[in-house]
């Protein structure tokens, strides 16, 4: 589903964010990426969402070879991947319903399909009855669940969650993680970055540790190991 | 879903989103529209003011004529030929003949309050000469007329020096220089006002969109196409333009109407408020259409330019 082959990203001559990283993520996998701030996690995700181009190396996501894509194809790539951000990135002037519907509108869904699909996804993330709320009327956890609903409403094969619990208290953080697990059970590949030791230990999934732009460990059913990060 | 159907739905969504954004960002919209109303009003006011000054200047020009005084012994044939020849000069707009009797009548009317003068003039033969009042088309080009009137055979018919010479010539020159200056200054003024206003409006819309740049970037991250992101912003700023244009025209109408009602024709010195009000009323639909066109155009172009920088793909190697 995701293949990175000796991917390097250099921002300037002295700052190598990623150094010859190679990774392979299978379909339906739930992968957790851990690393200290500045380790290269965010750069890795930006490469996957095509916000950045690698300096060298090969990236293939969902069968699309990024080397062969042009700038005008970027919207098409992003429509295939669901992304959840730490700061939610909800559209402030749209209601909960409209935020989720927006993801469908841009790919040309009809009004009937939107009316049918959006409530189901909002139900999935536990936001039934809050369709008409504006983002500023919601708690942090609710906002993040709207962001997840928006990310999965198009049923993407891959969901990338960039520290989605970073701004949440433990209770809301767990709600968000449970939603991600549920989505993974339905068949979506999930790539999650987090700092949260508790979440990593309880999930017991594949954990990839990145330090100084390199993969320092990659273990299945793993727990958070601070030694990996230093 | 057919392609046409899909396009219609997309257009409908863009317009709906633009209208929704307008309502949901009303505070920002009011601030932007206030600036647009003021600047559009300045443009409109400068256009009407320029037309009014042009009218005042034209009024001054119309008052300039050349008086050709005829000797008493000029025959009717000679006089008619002179009138005909003068009319044939390209720069002559009209030639009016004032007979001796008419000149006396005019003189009496002009001095109706001066009884001594009236008594004195009634006791002599009519001393006033017949004359031709020649009105030029362009007061800046009276040399051609002057050359004709100074010709030997024509000069022989004249009793006095033609009245464009001497002090009156200086006055004509001064007026023509002033009118030409004011006409040019008026046109440049309107242009400058229009340009500055457009820049201010552009900057206001740029600031409005700068405030919401995150929205643009989020939509981009979600995979929305450029036109789908930009469309609602264009709709929103076009609404600003339409409302601002309507308000600025209403504001000007109220001001001109009110001022014209409250003030006399000459109470604003050279600014003839009655003319300004008439000009505004006569050209109302044209003014409204042009203002709407300016409002819509500036709104749309500004938002297209202002959104461009936030819609670029940042995929640098």
Overview features:
heterodimer, A: 230 residues, alpha/beta, Rossmann fold, six-stranded mixed sheet, four-stranded antiparallel sheet, 33% helix, B: 317 residues, mainly alpha, Alpha-Beta Plaits, 12 helices, 72% helix, elongated
Mean pLDDT value of chain A = 89
The coarse silhouette of chain A is globular
* Poorly predicted runs of 5 or more residues of chain A: none
Q: How would you characterize the largest beta sheet of chain A?
A: 6 strands, mixed
Number of strands of chain B: 3
For the termini of chain A, the CA-CA separation is 29 Å
Explain this structure.
The complex is a heterodimer of chains A (230) and B (317). Chain A is of the alpha/beta class and 230 residues long. Chain A has one domain: P-loop containing nucleotide triphosphate hydrolases (Rossmann fold), CATH 3.40.50.300. Chain A contains seven helices and ten strands. Chain A has helices at residues 41-48, 74-80, 96-105, 111-124, 140-152, 170-185, 197-203; strands at residues 2-12, 15-25, 30-34, 56-61, 64-65, 81-84, 158-162, 189-193, 206-211, 214-219. In chain A, strand 7, helix 6 and strand 8 form a beta-alpha-beta unit. The longest helix of chain A is centred in the last third of the chain and has 16 residues, at 170-185. Chain A is globular. Chain B is mostly helical and 317 residues long. Chain B folds into two domains: 3-60 and 176-308, no CATH class; 71-158, Alpha-Beta Plaits (2-Layer Sandwich). Chain B has twelve helices and three strands; from the N terminus they run ααβαβααβααααααα. In chain B, helix 2 runs antiparallel to helix 8, helix 2 (26-63) packs across helix 11 and helix 10 crosses helix 11. The longest helix of chain B has 45 residues, at 167-211. The radius of gyration of chain B is 32 Å and the shape is elongated. The A-B interface holds A 49-55, 71, 74-79, 83, 89-94, 102-103, 105-108, 110-111, 150 and B 1, 6, 9-10, 13, 20-21, 24-25, 214-215, 218-225, 228, 313-317.
């Amino acid at each position: 589903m995701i293949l990175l082959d000796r991917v390097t990203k250099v921002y300037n001559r002295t700052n190598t964010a990623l150094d010859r990283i190679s990774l392979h993520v299978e379909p339906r996998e739930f992968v957790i990426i851990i690393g200290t701030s500045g380790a290269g996690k965010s750069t890795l995700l930006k490469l996957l969402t095509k916000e950045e181009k690698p300096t060298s190396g090969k990236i293939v996501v969902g069968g699309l070879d990024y080397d062969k894509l042009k700038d005008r194809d970027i919207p098409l790539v992003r429509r295939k991947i669901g992304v959840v951000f730490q700061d939610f990135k909800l559209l402030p002037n749209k209601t909960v319903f409209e935020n989720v519907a927006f993801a469908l509108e841009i790919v040309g869904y009809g009004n009937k399909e939107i009316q049918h699909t959006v409530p189901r996804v909002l139900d999935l993330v536990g936001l039934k009855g809050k369709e008409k709320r504006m983002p500023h009327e919601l708690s942090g956890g609710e906002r993040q669940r709207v962001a997840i609903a928006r990310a999965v409403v198009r049923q993407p094969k891959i969901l990338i969650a960039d520290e989605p619990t970073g701004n949440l208290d433990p209770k809301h953080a767990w709600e968000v993680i449970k939603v991600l697990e549920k989505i993974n059970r339905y068949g979506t590949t999930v790539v999650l970055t987090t700092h949260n030791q508790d979440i990593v230990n309880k999930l017991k999934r594949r954990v990839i540790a990145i330090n100084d732009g390199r993969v320092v460990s990659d273990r299945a059913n793993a727990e958070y190991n601070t030694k990996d990060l230093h | 879903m057919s392609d046409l159907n899909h396009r219609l739905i997309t257009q409908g969504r863009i317009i709906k989103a633009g209208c929704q954004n307008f309502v949901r960002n009303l505070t920002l919209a009011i601030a932007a529209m206030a600036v647009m109303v003021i600047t559009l009003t300045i443009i409109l006011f400068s256009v009407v003011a320029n037309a009014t000054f042009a009218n005042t200047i034209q009024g001054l020009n119309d008052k300039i004529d050349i008086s050709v005084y005829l000797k008493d012994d000029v025959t009717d044939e000679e006089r008619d030929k002179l009138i005909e020849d003068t009319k044939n000069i390209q720069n002559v707009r009209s030639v009016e003949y004032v007979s001796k009797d008419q000149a006396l009548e005019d003189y009496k009317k002009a001095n109706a309050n001066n009884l001594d003068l009236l008594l004195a003039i009634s006791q002599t033969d009519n001393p006033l000469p017949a004359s031709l009042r020649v009105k030029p088309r362009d007061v800046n080009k009276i040399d051609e007329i002057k050359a004709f009137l100074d010709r030997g055979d024509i000069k022989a018919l004249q009793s006095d020096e033609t009245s464009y010479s001497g002090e009156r010539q200086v006055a004509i020159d001064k007026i023509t220089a002033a009118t030409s200056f004011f006409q040019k200054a008026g046109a440049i003024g309107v242009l400058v006002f229009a340009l500055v206003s457009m820049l201010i409006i552009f900057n206001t819309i740029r600031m409005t969109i700068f405030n919401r740049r995150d929205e643009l970037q989020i939509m981009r991250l979600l995979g929305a196409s450029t036109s789908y992101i930009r469309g609602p912003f264009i709709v929103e700023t076009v609404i600003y333009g339409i409302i601002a244009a309507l308000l600025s025209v209403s504001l000007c109408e109220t001001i001109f109407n009110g001022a014209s009602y409250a003030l006399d024709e000459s109470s604003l010195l050279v600014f003839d408020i009655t003319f300004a009000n008439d000009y505004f009323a006569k050209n109302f639909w044209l003014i409204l259409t042009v203002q709407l066109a300016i409002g819509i155009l500036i709104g749309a172009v500004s938002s297209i330019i202002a959104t461009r920088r936030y819609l670029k793909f940042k995929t640098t190697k």
